[in-house]
Design goal:
Elements (H helix, E strand, L loop, with lengths): L1 E5 L6 H11 L7 E4 L3 E7 L10 E9 L9 E9 L7 E7 L2 E6 L3 E2 L5 E2 L2 E6 L4 H13 L7 H4 L3
């Protein structure tokens, strides 16, 4: 599986995704590619200023709260993340270094498996937006919700 990443310079998203794909057996064989033209899952944390070619993917994970030029992406399905209740993955609460993510609607992962609406606890998230983006992408790739704890473990 190829996980494509469009990211703004200076974010920790690509490194975080690389680390986790190597840690999770259910994502075995996955690798992360910067700005690919074709991938299984594309994750973006906003407009990718250096991308001048379109991307074709099976599933796109994109910010729902930021401007995003969808003309560069052709996807079979889209999952949005952000602070709005309109997004598929959002935050329900933050308390003492614990972030509760809310899946607002069912997610159909790249493997065709569905994940029902629920709340998920994430400890030690480096930032809310990075936690939302990485968590949404990994769930879309078929990672078990319990594996999100490994994502931000110090």
């Amino acid at each position: 599986m190829v996980i494509g990443v469009w990211h703004k310079n200076g974010t920790g998203l690509p490194g975080l995704l690389r680390r986790l794909t190597s840690m999770l057996p259910e994502l075995g064989g996955s690798h992360v590619a910067d700005c690919p033209e074709v991938c299984d899952v594309l994750i973006s944390d906003g407009p990718a200023p250096d991308v001048f070619h379109p991307c074709r993917c099976r599933l796109a994970v994109v910010p729902g709260d930021a401007p995003f030029d969808a003309s560069f992406v052709t996807a079979d399905r889209v999952i949005t993340y952000g602070m709005s209740c309109r997004n598929t993955v959002t935050v329900s609460s933050v308390s003492d270094g614990r972030l509760f993510l809310a899946l607002q609607r069912e997610i159909i992962g790249i493997d065709g498996q569905s994940l029902d609406q629920q709340e998920l606890l994430v400890r030690h998230a480096p930032s809310t937006v990075t936690a939302l983006a990485a968590s949404a992408a990994l769930l879309a790739c078929g990672a078990a919700p319990e594996s999100l704890e490994k994502l931000f473990k110090k």
